[in-house]
Specification:
Elements lengths: L16 H13 L2 H18 L1 H4 L31 H36 L2 H15 L3 H12 L3 H27 L3 H8 L4 H37 L11 H10 L6 H28 L10
Helix pairs in contact: 1-11, 2-4, 2-11, 4-5, 4-7, 4-9, 4-11, 5-7, 6-7, 7-9, 9-10, 9-11, 10-11
Length: 300
């Protein structure tokens, strides 16, 4: 009599979301530029979150006796022409920059995703019409668009966010449209169509998960651009109101007294440079980690 012994079977389990996220973070941190980008981004985000507790003074407190003071122990970055502590204004300005950037990009993605998928998956006449609208908006100079909206709505954070959203949606929608056009000819989409799956199911269950990745990478790379746009509009008087601390307002105030002291200009420009470097390095590392075409051996 022979007894058969059952061989244990091992099944490979797909890594969970936390494991995949940890894998991507490990890939980002494995490169020197990615590690530098993560460090700078973490500092900027933490500064924005805890700005009221980090700033040693009120960013709007005026002290004429200490106007244009050099950096010291009591004022780490010196003071501006009104005696306001520049370190406090830079810290609170970080919150302003991140609030504008994240709000504007979130709204831009929320609008561009459905528009891009509809343009790529819909009929040709609708695609042509939406491309015409995207091209028309993209052809408008950003400064002229900002001027027009400021005249209509007045200067303020909401106006800056609206300018950035209008300026950003066409490029994001174009990316989503291109990805959708490429995906809708794939076999898994054709199989869904053969089974008479509805358009909303195809768009949001099958196309959306495949187009959101490249879009998030582009948005991450664009954070530094959006922060610079906000600072530029505020510098020109088209953005954040002067009484609200922002890097653009600090630069604008600094240029008015640059012959007396260059400290305000340096204090307003240095955070912009660091934010640009940080988010660019972080976005490039994220792209390399998530795109298997660039690094096939890194595919999780």
């Amino acid at each position: 009599m022979t007894m058969s012994t059952a061989q244990p079977t091992t099944t490979l389990q797909e890594p969970g979301p936390l494991a995949r996220a940890a894998h991507v973070v490990g890939l980002v941190l494995s490169t020197p530029l990615g590690a530098i980008g993560c460090l700078l981004v973490a500092i900027i985000i933490l500064t924005a979150i805890f700005a009221p507790w980090i700033a040693p003074y009120s960013p709007t407190a005026i002290n004429v006796k200490e106007r244009l003071a050099d950096p010291s122990v009591s004022h780490l970055l010196g003071t501006d022409q009104l005696g306001r502590d520049l370190f406090s204004r830079v810290v609170v300005g970080t919150r302003t920059a991140m609030t504008v950037a994240l709000t504007a990009l979130t709204l831009s993605l929320a609008i561009a995703l459905p528009l891009g998928m509809i343009a790529g998956y819909g009929p040709r006449w609708l695609d042509a019409l939406m491309i015409l609208v995207f091209d028309s908006i993209s052809s408008l100079p950003m400064i002229m668009l900002g001027l027009a909206l400021v005249v209509l709505l007045g200067a303020g954070i909401s106006t800056v966010i609206l300018v950035i959203v209008v300026y950003s949606v066409p490029s994001y929608a174009r990316l989503v449209r291109t990805q959708t056009l490429s995906l809708k000819t794939r076999d898994f989409i054709k199989a869904e169509q053969v089974m008479n799956a509805g358009t909303p199911r195809i768009l949001f269950r099958h196309l959306l998960p495949n187009v959101v990745g490249p879009l998030l990478i582009l948005a991450c790379l664009d954070i530094s651009t959006v922060i610079t746009l906000e600072a530029g509009l505020s510098f020109l008087g088209l953005g954040v109101k002067p009484q609200i601390p922002s890097w653009g307002n600090i630069l604008s105030d600094g240029f008015s007294v640059i012959r007396n002291s260059a400290v305000p200009v340096i204090s307003g420009g240095a955070p912009l440079i660091l934010a640009t470097i940080g988010f660019t390095f972080f976005g490039e590392a994220m792209r390399d980690a998530l795109d298997p075409r660039l690094n096939p051996e890194r595919k999780p």
